[in-house]
Design brief:
The chain is elongated and about 65 Å long. The protein has 6 helices and 15 strands. It is an alpha+beta fold. The strands form 2 sheets. Strands 8, 9, 10, 11, 12, 13, 14 and 15 form an 8-stranded antiparallel sheet that branches. It has 2 domains: 150 residues, Rossmann fold, CATH 3.40.50; 97 residues, Bacterial fluorinating enzyme like (Elongation Factor Tu (Ef-tu), domain 3), CATH 2.40.30.90.
């Protein structure tokens, strides 16, 4: 059997001991597994950001990879710890909507509430389930334990509402859902929706006071400092500035509207 892969995605940052202690727990149980950091720079307590980044990362790993994801503002509260199995992957973390879009993309086979203390550290900290519950469960899972070993199967779990672009006549209204490290503004307008809306007609993209009437093929197009629109690697419409930050240039924030008008 090839060594298992466990990825980690959190909002813990890298300054403190949190990530290292989780890795230590995993390696103590399964020294042969491969650990891969997706990111630990999710904005604190931002479940939607975590869900989006996980959804656009998980499927590039080999099948049967275990994704350990923790953005957990209600740690120690009533939210449940879960193991979610899709057709091709495993996900371990809090039941707070973090796994909404991976479930939509890969289909959900089963969800287990983690209730078996045999696979937890003891005592369990009320503030660090990542170390005491999620990390050991991921590690034991990587050794070939069946999901049912960790608790009881459940039929309902938390999902996030996904705001879709709204069409009003010749206008499609979307919004910024993520601002990446480079200051690119990623919207909720998918490529397929965009082209089905404009129907090969001229269009105008409006964000704040800025107007853009064409799509670029990459970040390299346009003059330095020019604001451009393009479809990035996620296939969502992005607003970018060549060799600059669209966030700073347009003073944009997540949730700001973006308007596409056809026939312009």
């Amino acid at each position: 059997m090839r060594p298992s892969i466990i990825t980690l995605l959190t909002d813990f940052g890298t300054k403190d001991y949190y990530v290292a202690s989780m890795k230590g727990v995993i390696l103590r149980i399964n020294p042969q597994c491969f650990l891969v950091d997706i990111t630990h720079q999710i904005s604190p307590q931002d479940i939607r950001e975590g869900a989006f980044l996980l959804a656009h990362t998980f499927s590039y790993f080999p099948k049967q990879t275990i994704h350990l994801a923790i953005v957990d503002p209600e740690v120690g509260g009533k939210r449940r710890p879960i193991l979610l199995k899709t057709r091709n992957y495993f996900f371990v973390g809090p039941d707070n909507g973090l796994f909404t879009w991976v479930g939509e993309k890969d289909g959900v086979d089963q969800v287990v509430e983690l209730t078996n203390p045999e696979y937890f550290l003891s005592p369990i900290s009320s503030t660090f389930h990542g170390r005491d519950i999620f990390a050991p469960v991921a590690a034991y899972l990587s050794l070939g334990m069946r999901p049912e070993s960790f608790g009881k199967r459940i039929n309902q779990w938390v999902t996030l509402d996904w705001k879709r672009p709204e069409e009003k006549g010749k206008r499609l209204i979307g919004e910024i859902i993520l601002i990446d490290h480079f200051g690119n503004l990623i919207t909720n307008v998918e490529k397929k929706r965009f082209f089905s809306f404009i129907k090969d007609q001229p269009f105008m993209i409006k964000i704040g006071k800025k107007r853009i009437s064409k799509l670029s093929q990459g970040y390299w197009e346009g003059k330095k400092g020019e604001v451009i629109a393009l479809f990035g690697s996620t296939d969502f419409l992005e607003i970018a500035v060549r060799e600059g930050s669209a966030q700073e240039r347009l003073k944009a924030e997540r949730g700001d509207p973006i308007l596409i008008e056809r026939g312009q």
